[in-house]
Amino acid sequence: QVQLVESGGGLVQSGGSLRLSCAASGFTFSAYAMSWYRQAPGKERELVAIITGDSGRANYADSVKGRFTISRDNAKNAVYLQMNSLKPEDTAVYYCSARVGLSFWGQGTQVTVSS
Question: Residue 55 has what pLDDT?
Fold first, then answer.
């Protein structure tokens, strides 16, 4: 079965950096685009970044362009989100997602940015 496990969240000061990782299993990883979403308290879940299966294209939410970078390692079945210049408004639970027929989600990892 499809499994997605995020890691790498934590508490960081404004301006700092974090790198999130997502380990995937249960499907042909390289064949599918992978996404990172986030959900802040009281807000809807929003798409942060998406990358194609061959890493050929990536797209970002306007709010994170120039600060976040999504990447993947198909040999390791892993997708990453490098987050730089973090702001308090980036505070949220971050989720890894794959649409393999249905949409699958990890359990999420908390990112808290203090001002």
Answer: 81
Residue 17 · residue 86 · CB < 8 Å: yes
- Which tokens hold the place of 73? 């390692």
**pLDDT tens for each residue of 57-114:** 999 999 999 999 999 999 999 999 999 999 999 999 999 999 999 999 999 999 999 9
pLDDT at 54 over 90: no
Whole-Å CA distances, 19 to 16, 101, 106: 11, 28, 16
Cβ-contact 70, 84 below 8 angstroms: no
Token readout for 26 is 């249960």
How many CB atoms sit inside 10 A of residue 71's CB?
Answer: 15
Q: How many CB atoms lie within 10 A of CB 51?
A: 22
> In 1-115, where does DSSP find H-type helix?
none
CA atoms within 13 A on the CB side of 48: 29
